[in-house]
Amino acid sequence: MSNSKLSAREFSMWEYMLKDLDSLNGMIFSFPDKGATVAIMEEFPGSRMMLVSISIADSSETKFKPKVGEYHALRRMFIDNEYLKIRTVFSEEYDPEIWARNFANTL
């Protein structure tokens, strides 16, 4: 019956990486019903490629904690370079939250 929480160092890193994601026009979405967190951003401004990093809560977790999932998804994206590179088309009709939910639904 694990119930993970961030250490002070991890919390500080989470804040820094969240600001970094925002400055790169990236977004992060949490889906408690799936136990998943999805971070997305363009490979570079104007790119047709999206970088996607995910975090899935362990089945032993008793409560979904968005910050923990965000930390792991952001760490995978920015520190571990563990992300998927997916071709997509960004347009005015594009809704990143719907895309992220659909992605989480495939897990």
Task: Tag the structure with descriptive keywords.
107 residues; 36% helix; 22% strand; alpha+beta
Structure commentary:
This protein has 107 residues and is an alpha+beta fold. It has one domain. Helix content is 36%, strand content 22%. It is built from three helices and four strands, in the order αβββαβα. A four-stranded antiparallel β-sheet has the order 1-2-3-4. A hairpin with a 6-residue loop joins β2 (36-42) and β3. It starts with 7 loop residues before the first helix and ends with a helix. The model has no long low-confidence stretch (mean pLDDT 87).
Compact summary:
By secondary structure, the protein is of the alpha+beta class.
Topology:
Layout (H helix, E strand, L loop, with lengths): L7 H16 L3 E5 L4 E7 L6 E8 L9 H13 L5 E4 L8 H10 L2
Antiparallel strand pairs: 1-2, 2-3, 3-4
Helix pairs in contact: 1-2
Helical content (DSSP H or I, runs of 4+): 25-40%
Q: Give the overall shape, derived from the CA principal axes.
A: globular
Strand content: 15-25%
Head-to-tail CA distance between termini: 23 Å
Average pLDDT: 87
Total number of domains: 1
What is the chain-wise order of helices and strands?
Answer: HEEEHEH
Class derived from helix and strand content: alpha+beta
Number of helices: 3
Tally of extended strands?
4
- Radius of gyration from the CA trace? 14 Å
